[in-house]
Design a protein that fits this description.
Elements: H1 19-32, H2 40-53, E1 57-61, H3 64-74, E2 80-83, H4 90-97, E3 101-104, H5 116-122, E4 127-131, H6 142-152, E5 155-159, E6 167-168, E7 171-172, E8 179-183, E9 196-200, H7 203-212, H8 234-245, H9 247-265, E10 271-273, E11 287-291, H10 299-308, H11 339-345, E12 348-351, H12 359-379
Parallel strand pairs: 2-3, 2-4, 4-5, 5-8
Antiparallel strand pairs: 1-9, 6-7, 8-9, 10-11, 11-12
Length: about 375
């Protein structure tokens, strides 16, 4: 029997360590009276993230969107950039804020990432870069994208907002491309309330990024670029240091929830699970289901059924970025150009997954989905 009066279950929640563990960090910030501008915790978090993620050069930001805008600035990207319509809208907004024309290409049906063949077909003389997204932390086809970029002389900046800690064949996914951008928003596997980072290839580029995120200052009186205020403050950085201590627990709990869903839905007709290749590690950032036409009810009907029980599943990503008013007039935004992305956006439904999701709440979610799976079949 499905509980008729459940508590609200969001699609995700930030992991919050015990408050007593955070108090010493706050007391140190109060004692030092250094709350921002490259403080002690900021420097420590950059160092520890480099070690944890297996990268050499990382710059912290107040949020992932500012990081993505700055990455494009740092690479001096102009003209046209090929990107995916199947992402959070900030991916394309970052191009818009830099005066860059987004060119949407279709996605691969299995990975849900940019289809390399569609990338190559979209290249014009005005193309300067590719902005792929590791959707749901599933790595893009980085080898083929690298080949395309090398062949046509293009830059590659990865939106890796979902991909914290992901590795491919033992190598950090963040090492691919010219830059990668992470998000540390409260909905992410690793969070600093709000936050983000740029991962780049060399110390010189990191210095440029660090200048750009601090208004373009290189010293007290010298400004060398039209920068922005993208700095992460000490409270965010301190929380990140604390979060890192709990990542083993976070990953274990997310994996447990993911496996329970997979066991429940693996053989249900009309439901397709998003699979990650065996040579890739997983961070269990999301749990997307594809509700295909074989399922007895539509994706939207299943969504409404979950919502009726206070379960905040998300149609993530729907609508496509290319369908929003500010982008739908672009030549590349037509549904005829994006048939796979269009179809998948009308099938995908992300179920709640976060470390504190109680087993009873997950069982309720599973029961609702399965009841929809069998309702019409039993009636017929």
């Amino acid at each position: 029997m499905i509980d008729s009066k459940p508590t609200f279950t969001p699609v995700t929640q930030p992991f919050l360590p015990p408050l007593d563990e955070f108090r010493p960090y706050l007391e140190e910030i109060w004692r030092r009276k250094w709350v921002t501008n490259n403080g002690m915790f900021h420097r420590q978090l950059e160092e520890q993230l480099c070690e944890y993620l297996g990268v050499e050069h990382l710059s912290l930001f107040a949020n992932g969107t500012l990081a993505l805008i700055t990455a494009l600035q740092a690479m001096k990207i102009t003209g046209e950039v090929i990107t995916t319509p199947f992402s959070f809208v900030a991916t394309t907004h970052a191009l818009h804020w830099n005066g860059i024309k987004p060119v949407f290409a279709d996605i691969d049906r299995v990975s849900m990432n940019l289809d390399p063949e569609k990338i190559e077909a979209a290249i014009t003389p005005q193309t300067t870069a590719i902005l792929p997204v590791h959707v749901y932390a599933n790595p893009c086809d980085v080898d083929r994208i690298e080949t395309i970029a090398d062949t046509y002389g293009l830059r590659v900046i990865y939106d890796a907002a979902h991909a914290f800690g992901v590795r491919i064949r033992g190598r950090s996914i963040l090492e691919y491309g010219d830059m990668s951008v992470l998000s540390f928003h409260g909905t992410k596997v690793f969070n600093t309330f709000e936050g983000g980072a740029i991962i780049c290839r060399d110390a010189k580029t990191k210095r440029r990024i660090d200048n750009l995120k601090n208004f373009g200052f290189v010293d007290e009186t010298t400004v060398v670029a039209p920068g922005i205020n993208g700095k992460m403050n000490e409270v965010q950085a301190a929380f990140g240091l604390l979060q890192l201590k709990h990542m083993d627990h976070v990953n274990t709990e997310r994996a447990r929830i993911d496996e329970r869903y997979r066991k429940a839905f693996r053989n249900v007709r009309g439901l397709a699970l998003h699979e990650v290749p065996e040579h890739c590690t997983r961070n269990y950032a999301y749990f997307p289901l594809l509700v295909t036409p074989e399922f007895p009810v539509s994706r939207d009907d299943l969504y409404e059924e979950l919502r009726a029980h206070q379960i905040a599943a998300r149609r993530y990503f729907y609508p496509l970025i290319s369908e929003f008013p500010m982008y739908r007039g672009l030549p590349s935004s037509g549904e005829h150009n994006l048939p796979v992305a269009t179809a998948l956006s009308r099938q995908v439904l992300c179920l709640p997954i976060f470390p504190d999701l109680e087993e009873s709440a997950q069982e309720q979610i599973i029961e609702i989905v399965l009841s929809c799976a069998w309702r019409n079949r039993c009636a017929s």
